[in-house]
Amino acid sequence: MANRPSETTISAWARLLRAHRLAVSSVERALKIAGMPTLAWYDVLLELERSGDNGLRPFELERAMLLEQYNLSRLLTRLERAGFIERQACDDDGRGQIIIIKHEGRKLRRKMWPVYALAIESAIGTRLTETEIARFNEILRQLTGFEEP
Asked: What angle do CA 26, 31, 34 make, to 5 degrees?
């Protein structure tokens, strides 16, 4: 096979997946120990908070978070039932919805952040130098094409 990846590329791929799994598991464990919801809740609340008062359509959240529609739909239902978000009718699309973060959702996201931040520092910040982190960040930007975190 002419387009077979090199052994180094295969090894890098496997390590990337392993590092991702370990880092996310570490964050999830820290949140659970602190009695907080999952990382997915944080991510939804953060995206909604960043969107401001305009909120986001579900497909925009789906794209931003790289979640499947059915997973996002269930997550939004749980967040709504818990009182952290609300759904509003979309003026441009009679069947569409806009998801808005509520005050309680903002409070929860801010409460989760210190636990999340410490877990990030533990997973990456304490293992690499600032120079290594900067290079790693650039490599990940090249791989994803994203400028933002």
From this structure: 125
Let me know if 132 is exposed, middle or buried by CB neighbors in 10 A (0-12, 13-18, 19+): exposed
Q: pTM above 0.70?
A: yes
Two tokens, residue 63 = 């794209």
Instruction: Identify the residue whose tokens are 């441009």.
Output: 92
Helix ranges restricted to H, the chain? 7-33, 39-51, 58-65, 69-81, 103-120, 130-144
Using the 8-state DSSP alphabet, how is residue 128 labeled? S
What DSSP character marks residue 53?
G
- What is the chain's mean pLDDT, rounded? 91
**The token pair that represents 36 in the structure block:** 């907080």
Radius of gyration in angstroms for the set of CA atoms belonging to the chain, rounded to a whole number: 18
Distance of CA 16 to the CA centre of its chain: 17
The residue type of 41 is: W
Other Cβ atoms less than 10 A from the Cβ of 130: the count is 8
Q: How confident is the model at residue 1 (pLDDT cuts 50, 70, 90)?
A: low
